[in-house]
Specification:
single chain, about 300 residues, alpha/beta, 2 domains, elongated, disordered C terminus
Length: about 300
Amino acid sequence: MVSAPHEAMHRIFQEDPGLFSRLSDVLGLDLPPLGAGKPLTVDLTETEPLERRVDTLLRIETQNGGPFLLIVEAQGKKDPGKTASWPYYVTYLNNKYRIPVLLLVICQDHATAAWAARPLTIGLPQWPTVTTRPLVAGPHNMPVITNVAEARKDLALATLSAITHADNPDVDAILKTMSAALRDAPDVIAGPFVEFIAQGLGNRPAAQQWRNLVAVDLSFYTSPLSEEIRDEGRVEGRVEGRAEGHVERGAEDVLLVLDARGVDITHATRVKVTACGDSDVLRRWLVRAAFVTTSDEIFDEEAPVDR
């Protein structure tokens, strides 16, 4: 099943196809200056009933040369099946489009990144016919960005970095940095990155911290995550409101019974009853209010009730 972190790791390239031009510098890949990136169909299905889909596929233009295809694969764990599928993606797309193909794999843990970076060969051990060398981005080579100014310079790269470092011990500082950096960005720009980080964290403990930061620091954004948090807040508010209303009515009932029986309600009694927030205590006072002769007696738990 496709997970939220999986989607966030590759879909951010669909949101910002130009992200790879900055990421290539981070990964030390010597490429000519890159131009625009254009999303292509991810469906690699052939005429026979065999469906193959890449996560994200972009056509990248270069300023000094021809275009190339960028495959972005999000890999959450080791998958022996990729030994066959990744070389297939590369050779199929090269044959279909007749331009160079680059495979980029995004990971969130060191073990998966090391596994994904191994060259994949097809052929004899003595003479490999086809070799696929994935370019891997993960916690081993992505920068840990905890400087707000640095994050603001490239929000997409900083977001991808936060996703790849979801298990980093300093993830709290990373998320606070992203929250501060996104706070000053226009809603239309910041919204997708807010969602990508939420997806990328999955069900990790840090996900709740991000929700808290979104609720407080980024509360003015109208993203699906912020709306979900606001809806939860409204539900909690309604529940708390009902509970508070129930307590308020309980206090009113105690005073109403005393007044209806003609019992003089002292100022001290009125203050203590209205200040009480315990519905169980109010129920006990309500029962006593039906029998006491003075209002202060409702607080005397030891006094007998003359029925």
